[in-house]
Specification:
Helix content is 24%, strand content 28%. It is an alpha/beta fold. It folds into two domains: 248 residues, TIM Barrel; 212 residues, no CATH class. The strands form four sheets. Strands 17, 18, 19, 20, 21, 22, 23, 24, 25 and 29 form a ten-stranded mixed beta sheet that branches. Strands 1, 2, 3, 4, 5, 14, 15 and 16 form an eight-stranded mixed beta sheet that branches. Strand 2 and strand 3 form a beta hairpin. Helix 2 packs across helix 3 and helix 4 runs parallel beside helix 6. The longest helix is centred in the last third of the chain and has 17 residues. The model has no long low-confidence stretch (mean pLDDT 97).
């Protein structure tokens, strides 16, 4: 047997000892053949790489992520991810399916990629029910059954309908969970379990859900892991106090580091590798951080051929020049060099193409000035309004009430110190428009609009000035979707996303700079959050605590009760 490649004199990560050993690595075809401290030149390799002074770790595995958050399709995302040492992902494509249903998922599956992309079935499309939010697509039991037959579909994506899981035994999500358990009893069932504890946590697990990726605290980590739940840590949960809990209780076997959502501008600086560095900086030992991005995620998803450097596993690995900083020298996929330090990202020779209607999916009318005049049937000078309060960290919100003046029979929201948020159904189904008020959003005159609105991706516009709201909404329609920021009628930032209103086909470098301009413009208008884009986009996500808005209006995330804009008259 002739060996294709030998990596010599490297410090190789042993996943089972969680340490580095001076070893030589022999690769035959797409798999590791032999790892040994012995001289392997007798195997007559076609190529030898001297890795003296370098470290070898398995390719990174991201088991909970959404490609659509990068705002590029799989064929473009592939080269970007590989350049950061990510060799396998499990993608939950619930954004493209919210827009196009099963057709969207099939379009992603058809994309050719060097990166191994496996998929989780989008289990919550819509995230709640069609009575609470309008989507372009729908995933029901029949669609789930269709996807269960695809060998690249290996998990059930995050189940997130709190009420449907905890108190409605015959809800759609419970039907999907039961069907999946019946047909694929060993399939991992992913959950969206924020601020859920006690008996409600037990209800999630009783339904079959065994993992959570949402925002964690030291208390939630201990409760969930000690009760048998696997935790996946995204960036906002990678903080010293959380890492200390993992270390104190040696919880690493029940932990993976993931990305969940990484926007296009953040993708310029890294992907899963960036979260590994963040974990190390927050106190996680380097060896454990590598382990939790290679072996534990592979085991969670049932992979039997990757996640460690051992004979018979796929030869997916990274050569590091510096261990402390994870400085990548080279990335290998299936035994082949796919990226070298300093090289440009490998994009397909031609742009990806999708059906024509994917580029013409934003179908709602233009807002008018009259739409933004909110009548109030009262003789009082003011009313009490329900308000969405944004937090400076994370995507959680809180319900508050504020007194707002009434002027000439209309709510004087422009002088309230709050922002008006409008969600418009964009699929041409019912023409719904939902209205709300937001605190801690824009503090200056202006508006921001997007069609990248979790998860239904209806058109959402928020502003402190009616004229700017109208300009932003109309300009967004002309782009066929994306993000746009306006002040005094001038466009401060624009990021076109013409594919389904959520994706672009330009290189990520171009897209990242466009999105960065949007982010900077939002900050200039006073928006303050650790991730301004995600904070704004999730104001329409009705499964993330505690109060959100859809095209049906504001709602309580746990009870699904409608929350009226006007709470009461004074």
């Amino acid at each position: 047997m002739q060996i294709d490649l030998i990596i010599e004199n490297a410090s190789v990560f042993n996943s089972f000892l969680k340490t580095f050993e001076r070893k030589n690595i022999a690769i035959a075809g797409e798999k590791f053949y032999y790892i040994s401290a012995e001289d392997l030149q007798s195997l007559q390799p076609k190529e030898t790489v001297d890795a003296s002074g370098q470290y070898v770790i398995p390719g990174l595995i991201d088991i909970h992520m959404h490609i659509e958050s990068s705002m590029i399709p799989p064929s473009l995302f592939s080269g970007v991810a590989l350049s950061y040492g990510v060799t396998t992902v499990v993608a939950d494509a619930h954004e493209i399916t919210n827009v196009f249903g099963l057709e969207g998922m099939e379009a992603f599956l058809a994309e050719d990629t060097a990166l191994d992309i496996y998929y989780a079935i989008p289990s919550s499309v819509p995230s709640t029910t069609p009575e609470l939010e309008t989507t372009g697509g729908f995933i029901g039991v029949s669609e789930v059954n269709s996807l269960l037959d695809n060998p690249r579909v290996i998990a059930l994506g995050e189940a997130m309908n709190f009420k449907g899981i905890t108190s409605e035994p015959d809800s759609l999500i419970r039907q999907i969970l039961r069907e999946t358990q019946l047909k694929k009893p060993f399939m991992p069932l992913e959950g969206h379990v924020p601020r859920v504890s006690g008996v409600d946590l037990a209800k999630f697990m009783y339904a079959g859900i065994t993992a959570d990726h949402t925002h964690q605290s030291p208390e939630s980590i201990y409760e969930k892991i000690s009760n048998g739940m696997f935790l996946e840590f995204q960036k906002k949960s990678i903080v010293p106090e959380n890492m200390a809990v993992l270390e104190k209780h040696d919880f690493y076997e029940y932990t993976a580091i993931i990305t969940d959502d990484i926007m296009a501008d953040d993708l310029l600086d890294g992907h899963l590798d960036a979260n590994v560095r963040a974990a190390i900086a927050a106190g996680m030992p380097i060896e454990q951080a590598i382990y939790c991005t290679t072996y534990t995620p592979a085991r969670r998803m049932g992979f039997q051929d990757r996640g460690a450097i051992v004979a018979g596993f796929k030869a997916d690995f990274i050569l590091l020049d510096d261990l402390a900083t994870l400085e990548i020298n080279a990335v290998y996929k299936n035994g082949k060099l796919v990226h070298k330090k300093g090289a440009t990202i490998a994009y397909p020779a031609e742009k990806p193409t999708f059906p024509a209607h994917f580029y013409d999916s934003v179908r709602c009318r233009k807002l008018t000035a009259d739409d933004l005049r909110i009548p109030v049937a009262t003789m009082d000078a003011s009313v009490i309004c329900n308000v969405i309060q944004i937090q400076q960290v994370g995507t959680f919100t809180e319900p508050v009430q504020r007194e707002i003046a009434v002027k000439d029979g209309y709510l004087d929201w422009e002088n309230s110190g709050l922002a008006l948020i409008v969600v418009m159904e964009r699929y041409g189904k019912n023409g719904n428009i939902g209205f709300g008020l937001v605190e801690n959003a824009l503090t200056k005159k202006g508006a921001v609009a997007t069609t990248w609105a979790h998860d239904h991706h209806n058109l959402m516009v928020m502003g402190t000035d009616a004229a700017d709201i109208l300009t932003a909404q109309q300009e967004l329609l002309s782009l066929h979707g994306g993000y746009i920021v306006v002040q005094d009628g001038t466009i401060l930032g624009s990021c076109p996303l013409p594919i389904g209103g959520i994706l672009s086909d330009v290189p990520v470098q171009t897209l990242g700079h466009q999105l960065h301009a949007v982010r900077s413009a939002m900050v200039s208008l006073g928006y303050r959050n650790g991730n301004e884009i995600m904070s704004f986009s999730t104001l329409s996500l009705p499964v993330s605590p505690a109060i959100k808005i859809t095209d049906y209006g504001m709602m309580d995330v746990h009870t699904h009760a409608a929350i009226p804009l006007i709470a009461r008259k004074k």
